[in-house]
Amino acid sequence: MSEENLAVQSTGTLVKALLVAVVLATVIFVSFVLPAEYNIDPTGIGKFLGLTILANSQEQASGIPDLSDDPDYREDQTMVLIPANSGLEYKFSLQQYGKLIYEWSSGDNDLYFDLHGEPQGDTTGYFESFASANNNAMKGSITAPFAGSHGWYWRNGSDEDVYVHLKTEGNYEIIGLK
């Protein structure tokens, strides 16, 4: 066999092995890791094998309750108008260790934002910033380190009004615009 044929055969074998490895890793991730770690079970295999219990036991061991089982759990969506060349705050009231899962988007328009919290009853003006940047979208969650108001300050530096589409879920009360 010539060196050229050997090189082509080796490359072909390597590509096939790589594809098999990627497919196998994806199957393992979807079938075992997602159900055990995140209680996400698109195939149903995790429930059949009892792996989803692991994710629930990790939540219980960490002291974080399953939000959807809480009677105070809620889901909301709203549109927030950020006027041209100005800023505003949109807030939620959370208890200590309360969780807020969120996703917001301002379309193609970048906004300055600061996700922060202010302790309940504080009169000093103290606030704790969790994230700040210029962006047009953000998705994530916060666990409130203290009881109080938590939310976003958005600043629109453009000459046009911008709408923010905000989706939230968790255990909170809506304060709204501040």
Automatic annotation (TrEMBL):
Q: Which residues cross the membrane?
A: 14-34
Q: Could you tell me the keywords of this UniProt record?
A: Membrane, Transmembrane, Transmembrane helix
Write down the superkingdom of origin: Bacteria
Name assigned to this protein: Transmembrane anchor protein
Question: Which organism's genome codes for this protein?
Answer: SAR86 cluster bacterium
